Amino acid sequence: MSMPSLVDGDNLLYRLLTDLIKQGGSNGQWLVDHIVADCSVWFDPAVYTECPILLPWAVRDPKCRGNRLKGLPDEWGAPNDKGYFRDDNSLVKGLVKALRIRGPQNGYMTGRRLGRGWVAAHIWRDNDGDSLASRDPLLYTFVPNLVWLPRQLAKLSDIEDGPVQTALKSISFALYRGSRVSGSRHQIAERSWAYLPMPPLSSAIVESRLSFFDDAATTIRLRTKRTIEVVSALEAISRGEELNTKILSSRYSSGLSSIDAAARQKLIWELKRHI
Hints:
It is a single chain. The chain is mainly alpha-helical. The chain has a domain at 9-55 and 95-214. 42% of the residues lie in helices and 9% in strands. The chain has helices at 9-23, 28-39, 45-50, 90-94, 137-140, 151-157, 163-176, 183-193, 216-238, 250-255, 261-272; strands at 41-43, 58-60, 85-87, 101-102, 118-122, 146-150, 211-213. Helix 2 packs across helix 7.
């Protein structure tokens, strides 16, 4: 007699949520809106107005970690041919580790920090139906495209145009689309929004029920400081100087000099618009 297969508790929760949503009938959307609002954590819209793209020098590259079995080396942090930092979502996960959560009074998450079981999710997975949004530096850390979700809810958000993804898009649009972004940052934000199809909007989302990462001022200061450091490094290399300090990672610092000069100048121009 063969041994019975094992039941994964995470998978059980995923199946339960899926079944509840499917069987909810007219109450299904209410259930989705309720779960999404109570279980998601967002960046404060104030962060979006000052830093619409948090890491404008980074792009997601799932192949950067290599493959030991195939003899492919780990290249996380090395620049791609355009000078962007190749990340596997590690940088995004680290953005909020030290941040407390601000939410409804007596809310379960309010005043705490994220622990295990959370996923930094990209809300719009497709770049206007053309490619994965996270592969584009304009969308990878675009604030309206980021939300932190419990693991199983994040899996449901990956279902293209599914109810969870649609609810998240509606919340994001309501939170950020009308926020005023000034100067060159406005052009940056509009360019990123142009790639994201407008979702159906829901009137059921109540902002007072949402949770946000606290201390927007610190996030803005640190993100701007890091972008300035990258620009300074790129400009130093363009002048023929050697870098005396590590910028982002050892691989990134050592790899910048091999980037084509024209690509380097284009990235400098792009990043200066964020500062």
